[in-house]
Amino acid sequence: MRKTLLALAFSIIGILGLTGGTFAQRNIEPAIDRDPVLEQDAKHNLDVAWQAFRLKKAYKGVLMRFEETYAAYPTFSKMEEFLYLAGVSSYYLSENKGKQKVNLKLEKEKDKFAPAKLREDAAAYLALMIGKNPESRYKDEAEKILKELQASK
Question: Roughly how many angstroms between the first and final C-alpha of the chain, as a whole number?
Fold first, then answer.
């Protein structure tokens, strides 16, 4: 009787030991190692960009914040939002909207803020955002703008 109980106990322990490992498998996808200092700085830039976008309608400022952040930290956890802001800001500037006007007489603004280039950049940013985040909460608005950009060609 003791041998039977002991054998039963060992078999239960063995079964639990074998199946217990299947419930605690490691994540197959490697996690992105994020730098907390860069993450905080990028978050600040995103917050400032949202304020410039919503409150000031300063679309050139949004683009400058985006470019700075994307160059320094392209793996920012909220890059989806930044790509959306950059795409919409580029689109609005191409339509001559916002409080910061483009002066095409200035050499540095002529190349960077030409309407055709802004439309091209807007399409690129929004397509990249949708490609990287197909379930994005900004997807519908981005697709709407992309359709408008394609129709205007």
Answer: 86
Q: Could you give phi then psi for residue 99, rounded to 5 degrees?
A: -85, -20
Contact 106/52 with Cβ under 8 angstroms? Answer: no
Q: What is the distance between the alpha carbons of residues 102 and 151, in angstroms, rounded to a whole number? A: 23
pLDDT band, very low/low/confident/very high, at 27 (cuts 50, 70, 90): low
Domains of the chain with bracketed CATH: 37-151 (1.25.40.10)
* Neighbouring C-beta atoms of residue 122, cutoff 10 Å: 25
Query: Six-digit token pair at 48?
Result: 């400032």
Q: How confident is the model at residue 19 (pLDDT cuts 50, 70, 90)?
A: low
Residues 6+ apart with CB under 8 A from 141: 84, 88
> What integer best gives the mean pLDDT of the chain?
87
pLDDT attached to residue 22: 53
How far is 113 from 92, CA to CA, in rounded Å? 11
pLDDT of residue 117: 95
